[in-house]
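From the pipeline queue, job 12 of 40. The input is one protein chain; the requested action is below.

Action: predict structure.
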Amino acid sequence: MMPSSPESSADASIQATLDAMPMPTVADAIAACDVVVPPVRASLDARVRDVGRQAYEPVWRAMQGFTDARDANTDDELWWVEHDPVFTLGQAGKPEHVLMPGDIPVLKVDRGGQVTYHGPGQIVAYPLLDLKRLKIGVRDYVCKLEQSVIDTLAHWNLHGERRDGAPGVYVDGAKVAALGIRVRRGCTFHGLAFNIAMDLSPFHRINPCGYAGLQVVSMHDLGGPSSLDAVKPVLLDAFAAQFGLRPQLASPPDLVALASRAADAPIAETQAV
């Protein structure tokens, strides 16, 4: 057997690091974006699929299946979703941050981070990207996701900002977009949740992202649009500019077929009362 080259050994090391890295480690590593990562010239196609209103678990399992089955020739994708009400708890999430879930299900998932809420009126964007092909690391990936939201807010003259050690986007100290990612074999899944026009009361049942008393806000409350369809094209343009992608509209994914390709064993759903 030929000995591995330094380059291949380095690639394997990077992949192993990315595969094992939960979101708290990412947060510690990036702390904050010291400089804005500039957009790049579009060079790669990316399929954009609007999944519509969906329960959380079928989409999650489909993301896993897509990521497990993809190879170096698979086009990147971006999925838009509006989820039914659900609390999701990351791999390192602490159950004590789920205060009073009531009738909203709690699902333990394989992303990084603590607990968050998804529900109607929120854009959830799932970038399924090959970071090696894009030649960016996890730190730049997170910074570019945040910058996409910041640039979208700026379209409506709203000032979004980052917070040291707490990934996401904030306006006047209130969180308008949360991040929770997973990187496996250098490829991303999970993503960002952007509050547009939603009932924010379920956030009072948790410590959002593990922070007691963290204020959350929606774009409509800030004077922005209430329509998800008004925000999506602006967010897509900002996302494509940050990652150098040419968006190609495509049909919704076959969630059942993709889920059947997932290698992960199910993580148990819990329902606290």
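Job complete. The chain has one domain: 25-260.
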